[in-house]
Write a structure and sequence with these properties.
444 residues; alpha/beta; Rossmann fold; four-stranded antiparallel beta sheet; 16 strands; 25% strand; binds magnesium ion; FtsK_dom; Cell division protein FtsK; nucleotide-binding
Amino acid sequence: MSDQLWWMLGVLAAVAAGLWAWRRWHYRSFWLLIGFPITAISIRASWRKIALGCNLTKKRQRFWFTTVPGLIASTGVVRVRRKWQRIAVDTKPFMWLPLPTRYGWRVTLHTLEGQIPADYADVAERLAHSWGVHAVRVSSDKPGRVRLAATIRDPLVKVDELPPSTELLKVTVGRLETGQPWIIDFRTVPHYINAGATQSGKSNLANALIVGLAPQPVALVGFDLKGGVEFTPYAPRLSALATTRAECGGLLDDLVALMTDRMGMCRMASARNIWQLPPGLRPVPIVVLVDELAELYLMADKSEKDEIAKASTALLRVAQLGRAFGIYLFCCGQRIGSDLGPGVTALRAQCSGRICHRVNDPETATMTLGDLDPAALDSARTIAAETPGVAIVASQDGQWYRARSFYVSEHTAEYAARTYADQAPTWADVMIAQPVDTPDQQTA
Ligand SMILES: Nc1ncnc2c1ncn2[C@@H]1O[C@H](COP(=O)(O)OP(=O)(O)O)[C@@H](O)[C@H]1O
Ligand SMILES: [Mg+2]
């Protein structure tokens, strides 16, 4: 008997060790085959209680097998008995089978009458705590349906590299919390605002862009209002670099003139944008990187007023018309607020790509992310200083995501800039609107 007991204990210990090792060495298969089925069963089993706890249920009249007071026994105790009867019961939203995802699971629910996805978004944190997961995100791809996506652990603590994108003007810069790549695609979203406190990872993202765009047939232009300390090392791959406000003014004038040229060219060819031009005629697309945007608008004394107004108008024109003529903006700054003047507010309205790194004050998050879901703002405020590169990204699909850029050191970006220096058209070449061989692509 005791032999048998030892034997069984031995087997149990071996199984436990095996499971531990499996989980440790190949978490994905362990999750799919063992972890997920157990989780799925427990999610389904506990859904009524959790929905009730999160106020997601509705009262409905149903036949229910329930207790009713019966006879009073001679001892005075009320005896209850069970009986089918019509009573008001709490009905939970219908839940489909949960499906495993890379970092957790997702499940679709049918909303009950009068409910909207925001009701679920409001209780996302309660749901996350009830299920013991890192976060629950709510989305809705169809009226009457809500999709809850749970991530078990924060997937952005460590992000591994992805293969670079090979498409023109598309750069894979990091990873979204869903496990999908975080892609900056200038052809879909032409202008970006990249906000964040110092040391939050703004320059890292700019580096990732430089590394991604350097091998492509694209002209890169830098506006570095930190006196050139950020972008000067990348000068070999830049077609133009402005480091003072005066230089910025000149370069912006050039960009506006170039845009006017391209406009004329498109008009002559009856094209609405440069992508509709025949490939042989198509001018080179330009990506303009701006670091410390606020410096462009800051006024020390009145004498600078005109200069600032001119630069601000030119930048706004580039933002308004640039998309069609292949000029794209990527503006980085610590604060991009209305206190900097009306120019910056108008510019912000033109930049549909919004990236908000860790910020010091809630207003900056609000200003960057605009009227996105309040949960996005909360999420932006809770980005930890230990995870630089984490940002809230307003995506092309109208959703927001937490994302983290890949770590790209200055050294890597410098190396890329030097390696692909011969890809950089000179500014004079860009200005005479020489067409370059860009791969033939669909119209933007
Ligand atoms: N995605 C990232 N992963 C890991 N470390 C990062 C990441 N982004 C930034 N860092 C670290 O944070 C530091 C500050 O980033 P940086 O881009 O210079 O911030 P900012 O330009 O906002 O001041 C960098 O030196 C880098 O070591
Ligand atoms: Mg920086």
